[in-house]
Specification:
It contains twelve helices and 14 strands. The chain is α/β, with parallel strands linked by helices. The two termini are 24 Å apart.
């Protein structure tokens, strides 16, 4: 069910939103891992870094047009590779009015210096993608990552926050479920909930066919649902290209470039036409990357909480300023711990 401020709205109403609810901004396409499940591993386009001027332009527009649009300064790269250059970018986004800033990281660079930057730059939510609860599983999936370094870094971050009595950023540990790691998800969940943080599990993303598998999900039938990614998220590559969605990591469909147009113009131009096709369920008329997409039904993920206080803080943050979101009825046994949320992309 789709809701707008508590009232049921159809896809046609969602189509007409004049600015995205989330904006994924690729501050860098560089990464220090080659994960078996990540579209970047198979990506053909250049893996470069966004200019400071382009990032400033994007977040300044977000601050003016929709301050509660959630800014994700991550797309197909590891933002912490920027080191000290990253934190002034996040601080600038806050300065120009962005009120929701979420960073996704593989967590392998949680040094003392980077932790200090993360805690001081104005970040609201920090998602660490783990995908394993043992060195064998983790390092098989996240090639180039080191399990011991990851867990030591997370504990270092949590201890620093406890000592300073910090409530922000919200810390969320993500576990994407595959055949290779599904046997560890429950142990992972228990371990980190006991540390007092949010745990999120999500289904595998096949990056619209870049990662092998997922063909069973492809559908252009009028009976399927439209894709929520198309309705609420703008995705921007490091060169300023606005692409189909947060799954279009190789830029197969470019709707515009922000060196020549504003984000609002692109959102209400080519991307609005795509939303219209979705809302009318004219899926066979969509560009090829959408027609053969394996991921239209997996935007949602499930979050679990150590207590009600953390859950309330998390829900308030995620829902703040959103005109609509996908929600699901929970089993009675899950009512106190489980919350269906936007799954992000990594």
């Amino acid at each position: 069910m789709v809701y707008c401020l508590g009232h049921a709205y159809g896809w046609e109403m969602m189509e007409q939103t004049d600015f995205p609810q989330q904006c994924v901004i690729e501050v860098t396409a560089a990464c220090d891992q080659a994960c078996i499940h990540c579209g970047r591993t198979y990506m053909e386009r250049p893996k470069k870094t966004m200019s400071r001027e382009m990032f400033h332009r994007v977040v300044a527009e977000i601050g003016r047009e929709n301050p509660d649009c959630e800014v994700w300064p991550t797309f197909m790269g590891e933002a912490l590779l920027l080191g000290k250059r990253l934190f002034p970018l996040i601080a600038y986004a806050r300065q120009v009015g962005c009120r929701k800033i979420t960073l996704n990281s593989n967590g392998n660079r949680l040094t003392e210096e980077n932790i200090e930057g993360l805690l001081e730059c104005g970040l609201d939510r920090f998602i660490i993608s783990c995908d394993g609860h043992s060195a064998e599983t983790y390092e098989r999936i996240r090639i180039g990552g080191k399990f011991e370094r990851l867990y030591q870094g997370i504990h270092r971050l949590l201890e620093r926050m406890r000592t300073a009595r910090l409530q922000r950023p919200l810390i969320e540990l993500q576990f994407s479920i595959f055949n290779e790691n599904e046997h560890e998800v429950e142990d992972f969940k228990k371990y980190w909930l006991d540390q007092g943080v949010v745990v999120k599990s999500r289904p595998k993303v096949y990056w619209s066919g870049l990662v092998p598998g997922g063909g069973h999900r492809i559908s252009t039938s009028a009976t399927r649902t439209p894709c929520l990614w198309a309705f609420d998220t703008a995705a921007i590559h490091c060169n300023g290209n606005v692409v189909m969605c947060a799954i279009d990591c190789d830029g197969k469909y470019v709707a515009g470039n922000l060196s020549q147009q504003s984000l609002k113009q692109v959102w209400n131009g080519p991307l609005r036409w795509l939303r219209h096709l979705h809302s009318q369920r004219r899926f066979r008329e969509l560009p090829e990357i959408c027609r053969r997409c394996t991921d239209w039904q997996v935007k949602k993920a499930h979050a679990f909480f150590p207590d009600q206080t953390v859950r309330q803080q998390y829900e308030e943050y995620v829902r703040r300023g959103r005109l609509f979101y996908e929600t699901h009825t929970l089993a009675p046994s899950d009512q106190t711990t489980n919350f269906t949320v936007d799954g992000g992309v990594r």
